[in-house]
Recover the amino acids of this structure.
């Protein structure tokens, strides 16, 4: 699946395009977004097909939005065209590109075309090269796309907070005469998220958070490590079939380096910062360290079918969001997570993020476990329990069993209880977690470190559950109700 909505040029004639809800865009009547959701995307043209250079026009609208990084983590973000990252702008080498910025933020902004050698007045830095584009104002950027490959764009007014709040997106310039055709192409933009940094803090109308106030040198704290504005299973995976050749564009939009590692596959670095690497100089690696602002294009061949990790090798980054999968069509994991996979991919309890496996359907487990219909629906009791040492008290007259959440496992992972017992899940880890029954009958949402969630189980049978955000790290459990 292609990762980004591609921003089509104004007046473009693509019959597959469909309107998408971007209220201001609709009002302006300016923007049509194409959901580039078709599986795979073949690129590459023969010499005979290379079209002439043309003028391409786009509109980018900045506004404040609600953004869901993953279930349980909804934030206020600043976004281009209603999404984080902004839509992919895709043009061809030599095209004249005209992009109108419509600023609907309550603060001035601008756009820098990172990796594009544009004239100074089109480069974006506020103060040095242009005045800020004020709230409600428009500005037209115009340049010729002379630099091929993986480029990107981002805000360049107070970039420390504006990029951190979501103002960045990919810009890809296809060469006029591409030499390589890929079966599928993916773009992953890395960034970090600071839950203490809100638009109000950025505007100065709310105080800086207590942690950030203690940091020095303008550093922002980091709570989550993102790929394409999302974390954990909300990140769409790299889907491929055996024998396919895949291009993965890594782009670092954040402030930290990341060591992106692929399991089961080495990859070839075919471009750095968009520029093709000569064949004799290409490195074959399984981990690439990408610094802030950099891009690496990785070529990967589907020669080892399975379900594989693809993650940042700074392990606490992976623990807090920066991990996804290389997922072959029809493949199922070989570990204990396998029962949570369906023939078509993850079961509903896991596939709650991008919905990339299609509409919800009853999970057909590879290893079905009989879970009887509860006579009475289990009733979650008091959700926020105060401290690790004081889990939520069960209602009077009921038994209670405590299951501890430790990064990244349940302890004990298997328990047997009499019907009517309250199971209290207490998070004693450093990361937040969640608990969800595989049959969808109950789920906790986010449980902070030190927090707890309780559910009363009345019906005999076996209940399997997962942490919806760390199941790929092995966080599964089972309760047998007698
Ligand atoms: Cu990392």
């Amino acid at each position: 699946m292609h990762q980004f909505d591609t921003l089509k040029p104004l007046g473009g004639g693509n019959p597959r395009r469909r309107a998408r809800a971007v209220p201001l865009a609709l009002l302006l009547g300016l923007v049509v977004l194409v959901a580039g959701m078709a599986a795979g995307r073949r690129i590459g043209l023969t010499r005979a097909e290379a079209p002439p250079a043309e003028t391409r026009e786009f509109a980018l609208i900045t506004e404040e939005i609600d953004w869901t990084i993953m279930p349980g983590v909804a934030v206020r973000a600043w976004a281009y065209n209603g999404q984080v990252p902004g839509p992919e702008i895709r043009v061809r080498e030599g095209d004249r590109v005209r992009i109108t910025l419509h600023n609907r933020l309550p603060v001035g902004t601008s756009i820098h075309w990172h990796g594009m050698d544009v004239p100074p007045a089109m480069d974006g830095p506020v103060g040095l090269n242009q005045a800020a584009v004020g709230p409600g104002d428009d500005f037209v950027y115009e340049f010729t796309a002379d630099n091929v490959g993986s480029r990107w764009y981002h805000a360049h007014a107070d970039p420390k907070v504006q990029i951190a709040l979501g103002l960045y997106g990919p810009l890809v310039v296809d060469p006029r005469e591409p030499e390589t055709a890929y079966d599928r192409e993916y773009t992953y933009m890395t960034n970090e998220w600071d839950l203490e940094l809100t638009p109000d803090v950025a505007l100065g109308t709310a105080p800086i958070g207590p942690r950030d106030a203690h940091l020095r040198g303008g550093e922002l704290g980091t709570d989550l490590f993102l790929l394409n504005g999302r974390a954990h299973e909300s990140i769409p995976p790299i889907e491929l079939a055996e024998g396919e050749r895949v291009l993965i564009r890594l782009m670092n939009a954040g402030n930290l380096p990341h060591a992106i590692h692929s399991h089961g596959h080495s990859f070839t670095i075919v471009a750095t910062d968009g520029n093709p690497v000569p064949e004799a100089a290409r490195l074959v690696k399984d981990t690439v360290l990408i610094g802030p602002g950099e891009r690496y294009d990785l070529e990967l061949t589907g020669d080892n079918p399975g379900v594989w990790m693809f993650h940042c090798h700074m392990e606490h980054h992976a623990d807090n969001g920066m991990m996804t999968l290389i997922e072959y069509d029809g493949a199922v994991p070989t570990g204990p997570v396998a029962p949570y996979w369906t023939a078509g991919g993850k079961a509903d309890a896991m596939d709650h993020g991008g919905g990339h496996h299609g509409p919800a359907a009853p999970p057909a487990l590879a290893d079905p476990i009989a879970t009887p219909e509860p006579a009475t629906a289990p009733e979650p009791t008091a959700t926020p329990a105060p401290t690790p040492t004081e889990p939520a008290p069960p209602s009077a007259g009921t038994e209670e069993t405590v299951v501890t959440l430790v990064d990244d496992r349940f302890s004990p992972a298997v328990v047997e209880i009499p019907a009517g017992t309250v199971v209290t899940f207490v998070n004693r880890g450093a990361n937040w977690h969640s608990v969800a029954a595989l049959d969808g009958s109950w789920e906790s949402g986010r449980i902070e470190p030190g927090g707890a969630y309780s559910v009363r189980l009345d019906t005999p049978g076996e209940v399997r559950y997962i942490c919806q955000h760390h199941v790929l790290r092995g966080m599964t459990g089972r309760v047998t109700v007698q």
